[in-house]
From TrEMBL:
Subcellular localization, as worded in the UniProt entry: Cell membrane
Superkingdom of the organism of origin: Bacteria
Main location: membrane
Protein name per its UniProtKB record: Major facilitator superfamily (MFS) profile domain-containing protein
Keywords carried by this UniProt record: Cell membrane, Membrane, Transmembrane, Transmembrane helix
Organism: Brevundimonas kwangchunensis
InterPro entries referenced in this protein's UniProt entry, alphabetically: MFS, MFS_dom, MFS_Efflux_Transporters, MFS_trans_sf
Membrane topology: Multi-pass membrane protein
């Protein structure tokens, strides 16, 4: 056998394409809307609890399980649709659902009505991310995806910040001005109604997006069985990545669900007092982390080492572990700064997770892999986290019990996450652009 006969065939060239920043901006605004409505309940959940007469277990079901169910059941089917049908139309449907669910929350009269409204909102907000990333990856080159995702990541964190800033501040203002919009409506209800209407308006620009050509396709329209085989073939890489995300989601989910309650119970803050500054902390951490993550993702791809794109996630995870102590800080100022450090590291890791899948995997595998990532993040960050915290709360009683619970959870899961991302680097595949070609849009 000659040397020529065992050489690999030449790879098809990767076609240059100019980044479509208008589409990136629209996707950024869409993710901003999803994260805003998704987190709107967090800063005012104590008011909701008192108004509807629900208990902590029911509250945990609403803020965690109601959004985890859509992620667990629908993420993979929707990911299949992403890989086989028009993504823009799918995104419009999902955005419409989270707007309607948020408006419906304003009119819920009991636990069951609130759970149902949150469930509808969660169908859209909890399953849209793979659609967004799939579209984003096809409007820019692989070596520029870190910078493009930087903007989208900032939009996501801006949405999470807006949830606290708008939720807390708007609640406080409406509480002081009860007849400003809808007379006789509770401030938390008015907050959801106004934000839901805003989310509905943001659906309209999505009709301007044209379905982009699919790039880096290894096998166009693979069958379901073939997709499962391919997914299983990457089990070591994806499994390690999911372990890192699983552990990180516990700490992030705990922070997202319980920051408001910690500030109310341990620091005697009201939603009107902490809504603004918590929003700024979330936004600041998201912007700084997104900038660091976006730039380091593109820079790390130039390193001659396996899985180099995941190196920023490993470093950020290690640095974030001490920041898990934010809930036991002696005062609100230190609480804010340590929380900022934790959220900065989280923003880096989240961006690197998505960028690694968008760069290392072929087009037809991205949505499914991202959907699995979303299922882990939503399910673990919701009901699993709520159950663990409820159990651990019995171990740490007293006024600072919730803070101690969150701290221990963050430290332990931080080390597990670190091991997961280190292993993912070792099992990382060759970048998709080096082994794939091009395909036409799917209609």
């Amino acid at each position: 056998m000659t040397t020529a006969s065992i050489e690999e065939p030449p790879q098809p060239p990767v076609l240059f394409r100019k980044t479509k920043w208008s589409v990136v901006w629209l996707l950024t605004m869409t993710l901003f809307s999803a994260l805003t409505v998704g987190g709107l309940l967090a800063p005012i959940q104590e008011a909701v609890k008192a108004d509807l007469g629900i208990n902590d277990f029911q509250l945990a079901m609403i803020v965690g399980t109601a959004t985890a169910i859509p992620a667990a059941i629908l993420s993979l089917p929707i990911a299949w649709m992403v890989d086989h049908y028009t993504r823009v139309k799918l995104l419009i449907v999902l955005a419409t659902l989270w707007a309607l669910g948020t408006i419906g929350t304003a009119f819920a009269q009991d636990f069951y009505g609130l759970f149902a409204a949150r469930l509808v909102a969660g169908v859209g907000a909890a399953t849209a991310f793979p659609v967004l990333v799939s579209l984003l990856a096809d409007v820019c080159m692989p070596e520029r995806r870190g910078r493009a995702m930087l903007l989208v990541s900032i939009g996501a964190w801006a949405g999470a910040a807006a949830a606290f800033a708008i939720g807390g501040t708007l609640y406080g203002w409406l509480e002081a001005n009860p007849s400003a919009f809808v007379a006789g409506m509770a401030p938390w209800r008015e907050s959801h109604l106004l934000v839901g209407i805003g989310a509905a308006v943001l659906v309209l620009p999505l009709f301007l997006i044209r379905e982009p050509v699919r790039h880096e396709v290894k096998e166009a329209n693979p069958g379901f069985v073939q997709s499962l085989k391919t997914f299983w073939g990457r089990r070591y890489f994806l499994g390690s990545l999911y372990v890192g995300n699983f552990a990180g989601s516990l700490a992030e989910g705990a922070a997202a669900l319980w920051i408001g309650s910690v500030l109310v119970r341990q620091y005697n803050q009201s939603p009107g007092e902490f809504g603004g500054w918590v929003g700024l902390v979330i936004l600041g951490g998201g912007i700084v982390g997104s900038i660091i993550g976006g730039l380091t993702v593109d820079a790390s791809q130039k390193l001659k080492m396996r899985g180099a794109i995941l190196l920023p996630a490993v470093i950020a995870t290690a640095l974030s572990i001490p920041a898990s102590a934010y809930p036991i800080m002696p005062n609100v100022t230190l609480f804010a700064w340590v929380l900022f450090a934790l959220l900065t590291g989280g923003a880096v890791v989240n961006l690197v997770n998505s960028a690694a899948i968008a760069v290392l995997l072929p087009n037809e595998e991205r949505a499914t892999s991202l959907a699995a990532l979303a299922i882990i993040g939503k399910f673990v960050g919701g009901p699993v986290t709520a159950a663990i915290i409820a159990w651990m709360a019995f171990l740490f009683e007293g006024p600072t019990g919730l803070g101690l619970t969150l701290t221990w959870l963050g430290v332990v899961t931080g080390f597990i996450s670190l091991i997961g991302y280190w292993a993912a680097m070792r099992f990382a595949p060759q970048p998709a652009a080096e082994v794939t070609g091009e395909a036409e849009p799917v209609s």
